[in-house]
Each structure stands twice: as C-alpha cells, then as structure tokens.
Design brief:
By secondary structure, the chain is mainly beta. It is 11% helix and 38% strand. Strands 48, 49, 50, 51, 52, 53, 54, 55, 56, 57, 58 and 59 form a twelve-stranded antiparallel β-sheet that branches.
Length: 933
C-alpha cells in the first residue's frame, strides 16, 4: 500500500517539541498539508541551503544544534481486509535526515541514513478494523548529517516513498540472484539463494529448480549496457511468488583490467545526483526515465550514483535500458577537511565509535540493491579521507558479495579496494597512470598492488557553466591505454531551484535563499540545465564518446567500431554533401559487418560536380527503433572537406573621400577624430574597435585551478582604455593606429586598423602588436561593434548549430544555420561568456525585411551576437538580470582563450590558450537590402 499523498504537516525551528501529536485524539485541523514525498524547504518551510564542503552547523560530532528545524507529519489509513493475519512492514525509502515514527500512538522506532531504506514490523500496532494513524517526526540535523556532506542542497523531509507491505506466512524475506556468464563457452549459471524453501523457474531457459541449486544453461544472451538482455523468472515459496528480472553477466578484475563478460569495458559515464528544480530530491519515476533516455541518446553507458544509493526505481531502469552502475554508499564527511586531506581524529571513517553505523550503511545499500545486474561496482563512499572503518565496510561487502569489485577514490593507497580511482586528474598524470608509471607509494607492497589495478576517473570534466573543455584529450588517453577505463563527468544536472519573480523566472543557487554560509553557484555544474535541457557540454560529450568513429583514410572512409560487445549491424550510414552549405546530394553507404574493436574502409560515394567549399557529412544512425530512441537517431558522425572555397580575385580599391561630416570609404562613414566607423550606408553603427574582455566563465573564476579572472581583473583587462595615435586617410586606404591598455599598467597592445573598399565590400585588417612582457593569456582577441536592435535575425556559414570554443568544438559541424539573436544565447545558470559561433565564413544580421549587414571572415572568424555588452553580462548574476538594449553587440574575434575544466580540475591546456602575440586577421562588411534610416 503506497502511503504517498497529502499528509498533515507542522514545522518548527526546534527539535524538542511535545510529542502529543502522535496520539490519535490530537487535533491537527490547524496544521498545513504537505505532499509526501517532498522536501519541506521547497514548500515554504525554512529555506534551501547549499554548501559543497562546509557543514552548515558547528563541527562537534555527534552533536547538532538545538535550533534544529523539525517537521511533524500525520496521515491516516485503513488496512485492506485481506491483510488480516499477515505480518505487516512499514517501509521508508528516504527520510532526510532522521525520523522517529509512531503508529496509533505506539513508538515504532527511529531511522537515519537519509538515502537508505528502513523497515519496521508494525503488525502489533495496527488496528485491523478502524482507521490507523501514522505520525512521524523528522529532524533536519542529526548525527547522521556528519556522514552526508555530499555537495548538494541541504533539503529535509520524507522525500521518497512510504509503503505498507503485507508479508504472508511462508513468504520470502530475502533472496540473492547469482547469474554468472562464461564468455568462453557462452553458457550461464543461475543460483538464487532464498531464506525459505523455494523454487526458481525461468520458462525461456527451461529452468525449474530449487533455490540454492546452481543451474547451468549451455547458451544464454549476456547482459551488458550495450545489450541489456533480461530474462523473466519467478521465485516461488509456499506463501509468495516474486518476479525476477535476471541478467547474466560476470564482472572481474583480471590482468590489471576491469572486465565485463571477459572484455575490457570503457566507461562513458556521468555522476548523477537526484534532483528536480521544483521537487528537489523527490524525483518522479517519469523524471528518472527521462534521465535514462537522455543518457542513452547521448552515448552515455555508465552512471555513478553520487553520492548515495538512488531511488530503487532508477536502478530498475538501468537494468532495463542498459547502463553500468557504480552504486555508492550514503557516505561523505568532506566537512572534516576544510583545507587539506590530513587525518582528523574525529572523522567518523576512522573513529571506532562510528564503525557499526558505517558498516550498517554499506549493508543497507548492498542488501537493497544486490539483485540488479546493472550494478558492476560498489563504492564505499566519497571524499571522506581514509580510515579503518573503510576496512570494515569493505570486509563486510566482500563477504556478502564477493563477485562485485569495490571502489573508493579518496584513499590513494587503495588499501581496501579493487579499482584505482582518482578525480580531476590532469591529463599528464592520467597518461603516467595509463603507463603504470605513476609516482610510487611509500609502501612497496601497496604500491605494487595499486599499480596492478585498473584505473577509473570517478569524476572528471567538471561541467560547471561554459565547458568543460579538454574532453577530447581525456578520451584519447582512455582509448590509448587499456588501464585507463574511462570516467564519469561531474555531473549530470545543474541543481538550480526554480524561482519565479515579477521580472521573470530563473534558477537559484547558493546564496539566493538567505543562507549565511554557502558556496554560490558551485551547485550548478551539470551537463543538463535544471529544466533538463541539454547543455552544449552534453552535446560535446556525446560527440567525444561516440561509439562509432568515422575518419578520413587517404580519401576513403574508415569506420571504427568502439563498442565493447556489439557489431555495427544496428546502424545505417547516411551521407550528404553540401556546397557552400547547400545540400547537393545524399545517400546511404554500404558498410560490411564490423565487430567490436574492428574497423573497415569504404570508398567515398560518387559526388556531383561542386563549385564552392564543399563538405561530405557521414552519419551513423539507428536502423530501427530501440526502446530508448527511434530509427534515425544519430549515434556518430564526421565531416570531410571535399573542396576548398573558390577565392575571387580582388578588384580595384575604391578611393577614400574626406568630407565635412567625416571620412567616406564606400558605404562606410568614419569619425575623423578617432577613425571609428559610425555608419554603414544609412545604418548607424558603433565601432568596431579592439576588445579583449569576456564575461568570465566559471572555469576562469577565483575558485578555479586556473583563475585567469583574478589576473585579468588585476591587470585591468575589463577596463581597457583606447588612445588614438593616428587617423591617416590615404588615396585608397584609411589607417587608424591606436594603443589599447589598462590603467596603472605599462602593458598594452598596439592596434592598427586598415580599412579598404573593393566593390561593395568594406574590408578591415586588424593588426595587433603586444607592448611589454605579457605573461598571461588574453580572454579574447577581436573587435566589438554595435548595430541597430532591429537586426535580430542571424544566418551564418560556419560551425554550428550550437556554440563552440577552442577546446570544446567537436559537436559543431560546418553548415548554413539560422537563428535569432536571442536564440544564440546559452542561458547558463550563472551568466557568463556564451554563444560563440566558431570558424564563421560569413554571417548576416538582418531585420524582418532582409535589411542589414553581412560580415565575412578572411577566411574564418569567431562571432558572438547579443543584446547586451560583455560588461553587462559580467555584472549579471542571473539571466533575468540581462535586459535587451537598443543595439545588438557583435564581437568579431580572432579567437578566445579555451574553456578548460579549472572550476574543478585542470585548466586550459597549452594548445588552447590565447597568448598575447603579434596577430593579424581580416574581416569584411557588406550592407544588405534597403538602407536603414
């Protein structure tokens, strides 16, 4: 019986209120109504609070403050008549952080371990003929809170299901499915242990055997994330029949590798917190399914359940759709390490007084989840330092479930685990680990043991704001070194809480709810925006980890199968060729059978006569519908350049004319005092002039390992000043020389603008020469200009359709694209640089009549277009702070500094930095349509 629904609710600021509400005669008519499951802070009781590391209460374990927000709950129910005479259990799947329970005034018990199940035998407290009263008191803080410092919102209440469960005489209280697979023979062995006499039947396999007996099947289809084959069975005892979903698979560590069904697997994973912007951690089954479908559609094959066991329904979906799972214990004591990871004497993981509690948490996870084939690793917890209690947890887990390896990242000696794991490890260090040449441990025996282990990055690629960059280089290491078996991006979703105001809607982060202690927008570090819209980072990740790779092979196409188990027979290969972004032909490729880890070479299809820059696009798509996507869904793709652009010969230059109102050069009118372009035809413009500033991305900011923002602001790159040295009109060229520099600094940039006109095109060559010893990269290097706000329609030929940056551009392809200026913006939870379109050949900005401006690179430029300046974007704290002005601001860049993943992890790799060095590039402008008045 599901007890979800509306419960009576009373909230108070202290934990020591009277418990008379547990009595049946208590009058709760003045109480509020709160849905269960729910987090009470999202219904107006108290406020959400976000900290990453620090406990929001004094650290004196096991004590918590007297001012301890508390919620009292009451609900009534009637027992179904058919339950009479049976044992009845009351089950809570998740209560944050602890609860005391009464049934009909009888004290049932206490539970803690917020994301772990608790069951109570309430048979003796039930009234079988009348209405029953269930009363629950939930405290926000408890001793268990010291174990749950898990980088997320502190949210309280009954947030998972509450159920009554009737247990018949002769029922099965516990069973353990062991479904082994032998990859050498293709056979399986099924053993189902049960705590009472029972029989196991699997009709499809002809199995009918007593529980506890090993049954060998000569041929089974194994379960894997690529082919999640499940067999339906039944475990039947005298009093109960339990449906089984059986997946045959074997997980081993052998030869220094983690093997599933005898094959090395590569984790293309994500870390997943349970979160919804409106419901907090009370996530619905529909939302869980949406997550799984999005993961599968973006080539993700693995999930780490950071940092606690998820709602059990999520694991059922992983079994069904195919995702490898690292199931993580509900344990993190990060707040004991505010500055370093040095041992602290009161850290629960090394305090014998906490041993039983920690082992109990491990036990509750394993016993709940042990029958899921998707779970391939148990994790002992996260970011809790090292301590002897991990040994006790590992010992219990190995005894209970010896066939699943163990993982825990923060003890770098790997004393208690089977898999070596790190987080945010720089690329160079990952390469050393891949070579088994990492720096040695002091203990030779531990060093040799760790060096023989497979390696997994439990967290990498911190997806905070605009980024992460550098994913391609990580993937290359995973594919080059067998020991490096992939990793898990941090994390799946931004934890922004939806806020509605008169100015509009936005997603709140730390500090938005009056918290005295918070960690800002560090809670918004996901591949999905809070409303579950995929971010550019997710699209980039999908491309980087695509399991089929198509590359140029000397004018032919090499198709490589990067799957671990399956052939490419489930895919079709479609091609199209575009000439200057316009499709000229398309078709399908004939691709022979390609086994896992194999590749084939196929010829390029016959192509029509092409006249301009031409690109062949080849896409691998699903040939048929599958449970998680429809036929035609794209799995992987590539582009090959077939023909370079035709370069038109430059015509004669047109003359410069000096007039009373200014300097005229073709359609351009320039201010004679400073040489700035002020009109194009009849269209007013401002600029262009040199711009080096971008609204810092999270990976630039003060908390980054690569805190460029601090150096940039300290130097003054956000407030550059321009000195015009010369405005020199010549016969057919206007030359403007300037020096651009920040106040209080000797560093500067000499900039020369060379304007010419050929035909109807106004050309600008920008030449930049650094002045002084520049030791830091530039945020961006380009020019900025403003055009009328009516020019809100954008078309371009270049990379798209989404944004792209130096170290995050794999997901962008060359083509013609259209959008509005507003659609070019990426609404990061914390506003920052976004929306860059890279390798632009040309871009047009027009009004609804087609009047406007065409900007062309010679040959390529990066362009951003927005209705506010970089300075306004920099000043905003939420997207609703950005108000459109009377102009569209256009950045036409030589380039920007890379993104990196420095908000947590390595910064921008050297190849993607933007140094201040002598630079020159060319751009042209052309007026389109009727002149603007």
């Amino acid at each position: 019986m599901d007890l979800s629904g509306d419960w009576r609710f009373r909230w108070s600021t202290r934990a020591d209120g009277d418990t008379d509400f547990a009595a049946a005669g208590f009058d709760d008519t003045e109480w509020a109504v709160l849905p269960v499951p729910a987090n009470w802070q999202l219904h107006g009781y108290g406020a959400p609070a976000y900290t990453n590391v620090r406990y929001p209460f004094p650290v004196e374990p096991p004590h918590v403050p007297t001012d301890n927000p508390t919620g009292d709950y009451r609900v009534t129910f009637e027992v179904p008549p058919g339950w009479r005479g049976q044992r009845v259990l009351l089950r809570f799947d998740g209560v944050d952080s602890c609860a005391r329970i009464w049934l009909n005034g009888n004290d049932v018990g206490i539970t803690s371990g917020s994301r772990l199940p608790a069951e109570f035998d309430v048979t003796g407290s039930l009234d079988w003929t009348a209405t029953n009263l269930l009363a629950v008191r939930v405290h926000q803080w408890s001793s268990g809170s010291y174990l749950e410092d898990q980088d997320m919102w502190w949210l309280s209440g009954i947030f998972r299901a509450v159920t009554l469960i009737a247990r018949p005489d002769g029922g099965i209280d516990d069973y353990f499915v062991h479904a082994d697979y032998d990859h050498l023979t293709g056979g399986g062995t099924l053993t189902v242990d049960a705590d009472v006499p029972a029989r196991v039947t699997v009709p499809e396999l002809g199995i009918d055997a007593p529980a506890g007996q090993a049954v060998r099947v000569p041929a089974v289809e194994p379960w894997s994330a690529e082919s999640p084959r499940l067999y339906d069975g039944v475990l039947a005892a005298a009093g109960e029949r339990i449906p089984l979903r059986i997946g045959f698979r074997r997980v081993t560590v052998d030869g220094g590798l983690l093997l599933v069904n005898g094959s090395r697997v590569l984790f293309r994973g994500v870390n997943r917190h349970e979160f919804d912007p409106d419901r907090g951690r009370a996530v619905t089954a529909e939302t869980m399914r949406a997550d799984v479908l999005l993961m599968k559609r973006h080539n993700i094959n693995a999930v780490r359940t950071s940092h606690y066991p998820p709602d059990p329904r999520f694991l059922e979906l992983c079994d069904e759709y195919g995702l490898y799972v690292i199931d993580e214990c509900d344990l993190e004591t990060h707040g004991f390490f505010p500055a370093t990871w040095d041992a602290t004497p009161d850290n629960p993981v090394d305090d014998p007084n906490w041993r039983d509690e920690l082992v109990g948490r491990m036990r509750r996870m394993v016993e709940r989840d042990k029958n899921h084939p998707s779970i391939v690793l148990w994790s002992l917890g996260n970011e809790s330092g090292s301590g002897r209690n991990f040994g006790a947890m590992a010992g219990w887990a190995r005894e209970r479930d010896p066939l699943r390896p163990l993982l825990y990242e923060r003890d770098y000696t790997c004393r208690y685990v089977d898999v070596y794991s790190r987080m945010y490890t720089p690329h160079a260090d990952v390469e050393l680990i891949g070579q088994r040449d990492e720096p040695p441990l002091e203990d030779p025996e531990l060093d040799a043991r760790r060096r023989a282990m497979p390696f997994i990055l439990c967290e990498y690629g911190h997806a905070m704001g605009n980024g992460p960059g550098g994913l391609t280089e990580y993937q290359e290491l995973f594919e080059r070194y067998p020991r490096c078996q992939g990793g898990f991006i941090w994390e799946w979703i931004d934890h922004g809480i939806r806020v509605r105001t008169g100015r509009g809607e936005y997603f709140g982060y730390g500090g938005d709810f009056g918290e005295p202690l918070h960690d800002g927008n560090f809670v918004a570090d996901g591949l999905l925006f809070p409303d579950r819209t995929p971010s550019p980072g997710l699209l980039e990740y999908k491309k980087v980890i695509e399991p089929v790779r198509i590359t140029d092979d000397g004018g032919a196409l090499r198709i490589s199968n990067l799957h671990d188990f399956r052939t490419l027979s489930h895919l079709d290969f479609e091609w199209s060729v575009e000439d200057e972004g316009i499709e000229r032909a398309s078709g399908s490729l004939e691709v022979p059978e390609v086994g896992p880890g194999e590749s084939v070479v196929v010829p390029v299809p016959d192509l029509p006569l092409l006249s301009g820059e031409a690109w062949l696009t080849v896409r691998a798509v699903l040939a048929k519908d599958v449970p998680w996507a429809a036929a035609g869904h794209e799995i992987g793709w590539t582009q090959l350049k077939i023909r370079d652009a035709t370069v038109a010969e430059a015509g004669p230059r047109r003359p410069v004319t000096v007039l009373t109102e200014g300097i005229r050069l073709g359609a351009g009118l320039f201010d004679p005092a400073d040489g700035r372009l002020v009109r194009l035809g009849a269209m007013p413009v401002e600029g262009p002039r040199l711009d080096v500033w971008r609204a810092p991305i999270d990976n630039d900011r003060w908390f980054s390992s690569d805190p460029n923002e601090l150096a940039w602001r300290d130097l003054g790159l956000h407030r550059m000043q321009h000195r015009v040295a010369e405005v020199a009109p010549g016969p057919d060229e206007l030359v403007v020389r300037t020096r651009v520099a920040p106040a209080a600094s000797r560093l500067g940039l000499f900039v020369t603008y060379r304007w010419t006109v050929t035909g109807d095109q106004l050309g600008l060559r920008v030449e930049v020469e650094p002045d002084g010893d520049w030791e830091l990269p530039l945020p961006r290097l380009g020019v900025r200009m403003a055009v009328p706000a009516e020019l809100g329609n954008v078309s371009w030929f270049g990379l798209g359709p989404g944004e792209a940056y130096r170290d995050s551009r794999r997901a962008a392809r060359v083509g013609r694209f259209t959008a509005t200026v507003d659609e070019l913006q990426t609404p990061y939870v914390f506003p920052q640089e976004n929306g860059n379109r890279a390798d632009v050949r040309w871009m047009t900005l027009t009004d609804d009549s087609g009047t406007g401006l065409r900007v062309s690179g010679n040959p390529l430029v990066d362009i951003t277009s927005r209705r506010w300046t970089s300075e306004q974007l920099d000043a905003a704290r939420h997207p609703v702070d950005l108000e459109p002005g009377d102009r569209v601001w256009l950045n036409i860049d030589y380039g920007q500094n890379g993104l990196g993943t420095g908000s947590c992890g390595p910064g921008v790799l050297p190849a993607y930095r933007l140094p201040a060095v002598p630079t020159a590039y060319t751009v042209t402008f052309q007026v389109l349509g009727q002149a603007l008045g």
